[in-house]
Structures are given as structure tokens and as C-alpha cells.
Design brief:
Blueprint lengths: L5 H21 L4 E8 L5 E8 L6 E9 L11 E4 L3
Antiparallel strand pairs: 1-2, 1-4, 2-3
């Protein structure tokens, strides 16, 4: 016997879906920042840090490092949120 048929089953399904949407809507989104730094070889590096909203863990992606042009020094390390 299928208990999910009829108005009662439809109401239960709708309630479950609404509850799931409300819970998902309450979650704080992760932050994404552009980060620059100088590595141990003197290269200027840029990467994207994804900061987990629940525990603050950082994951670096899209890392790109290159030596600065002749006669130039890399700037100071920075971190800035990505414009959304």
C-alpha cells in the first residue's frame, strides 16, 4: 500500500521539501578571497582561498607564482574578498 498518495501524502511531501529548503537557506555561505604572497624562492604568488563558513578552514586553489621583473621586488602579502 502506497501511503504517499492523496492530499495527506502531498502535504507531507511539501512539508518535507519546505523544511529542507529552509534549512539550506539558513546555512552561511563560504567566503572566497584573492590572496597574494611571496614564496621562499622570492616569487610573487596569487591564489584563491575558499574559507569554510562552518569551521574557518582554508583551501587554496588556482595558485600562480612567477618571479618579478628584473629590478623589482614583490609587494607585501595581501588578502581581499572577491567581489560577488
Amino acid at each position: 500500500m502506497d501511503t504517499m498518495r492523496g492530499p495527506r501524502g502531498t502535504a507531507l511531501t511539501a512539508s518535507a521539501l519546505l523544511g529542507a529548503l529552509l534549512l539550506a537557506g539558513c546555512a552561511k555561505p563560504d567566503r572566497t578571497e584573492i590572496v597574494t604572497w611571496t614564496d621562499e624562492h622570492g616569487r610573487a604568488c596569487t591564489g584563491v582561498a575558499v574559507i569554510d563558513s562552518e569551521d574557518g578552514d582554508r583551501e587554496m586553489t588556482s595558485i600562480d607564482c612567477d618571479y618579478p621583473p628584473e629590478g623589482r621586488q614583490p609587494g607585501r602579502a595581501t588578502s581581499a574578498p572577491l567581489a560577488g
